[in-house]
Amino acid sequence: MVIFRNEVMKAKIEEIFDRLIAEVRKGRSVDDCLHEYAEYADELKPLLYLANTINDLPKPEPSAEAVEATIKQARALSSEQKTSKRFSFREIFILNPVMVRVFAIVLLILVFGVATVSLSANSLPGDVLYPVKIATERVQLLLTIDIEGKARLHAVFADKRTDEFASLLEPGVEISEALLAEMLHQTDLAIACVVVLDEESAAEIIDQIAECCHRQMAVLEKARDCACEVDIAVIEEAMQECVEQRECIECMQQNNESPSTDCSCPE
Predict the structure, then answer these.
(1) d(Cα 85, Cα 117) in Å, to the nearest integer?
(2) Alpha helices in the chain (DSSP H)
(3) 214 vs 45, which has greater pLDDT?
(4) What CATH number matches the domain at 147-257, 2.40.50, 1.20.58, 1.10.540, 1.10.10?
(5) What is the mean pLDDT of residues 55-79?
(6) Distances from the Cα of 255 to the Cαs of 190, 200, 204, in angstroms?
(7) Which of 21 and 68 is assigned the larger pLDDT?
(8) Domain residue ranges of the chain, discontinuous segments joined by +
(9) Would you say residue 96 has pLDDT above 60?
(10) Is the pTM of this model over 0.70?
(11) Do 156 and 134 form a contact (C-beta atoms < 8 A)?
(12) 198-247 pLDDT, tens per residue?
């Protein structure tokens, strides 16, 4: 009975997702669409943003040489199929519409996934491909089920936000408070995941987060030195939060050596 209910819910979410994708493509905002289905917002929001991001990407324009080469390959393949008298891919697609959708998804991944995700890896906030980078990270989290895997991802994302924040630092230029908040938020999420892991699984990740906290504090000190006056208070508040995170991590490191230590960390 539980399996049946899960299947029904999954089918309903897929139906709602298809309906909302059509609305988003007509120009309706993602948040407005999710307002009607608040109970499914957590599952639908990252998928809608990813689909919307892919839809907004510039469409590739193949060169005339590439088109001609593809046509020649298609003709050669057609000739081979007629000679060998083997099954036809066309017949498979006609008889099985699911294959058409799978084939389309594979092409989408090949065209946009490989090239665009690769190009977006080094993008910074404000760049055209930065939303693709963030959407890719959200998909990674969605596909990661175990807590240990999520802890590792959050630690990696915290490192990435730290690098991005450091790259955007310029004397006299206002900092990105949203990026700063996300940097510390990813660290908090990594710590929250580690708290529930056993000591053996957590040890390596704790060291990774500790190194990240150390780097974040160094970046924040540099930011304070070159920040404009309006940002100093924000940076000092972030430094205080970074200190608390580092104290929590150091406590967990000591707890691995002496389990009697009680650490007050986010859960």
Answers:
(1) 40
(2) 2-25, 30-35, 41-56, 64-84, 89-95, 97-108, 115-120, 130-143, 147-167, 177-195, 199-226, 229-257
(3) 214
(4) 1.20.58
(5) 60
(6) 17, 12, 14
(7) 21
(8) 2-56, 87-143, 147-257
(9) no
(10) no
(11) no
(12) 877 788 999 999 999 999 999 999 999 888 888 899 999 999 999 999 99
- Nearest CA to 224 out of 239, 210, 211, 214 is that of 239
The identity of residue 109, as a single letter, is I
Whether the CB-CB separation of 182 and 138 falls below 8 Å is answered with no
Residue type, 196: V
Q: Which amino acid is at 148?
A: E
CB-based burial label for 201 (10 Å; 0-12, 13-18, 19+): middle
Buried b (16+ CB within 10 A) or exposed e, 168-190: beeeeeebbeebbebbbebbbbb
Q: What value, to the nearest 5°, has the Cα angle with vertex 82 and ends 80 and 85? A: 105
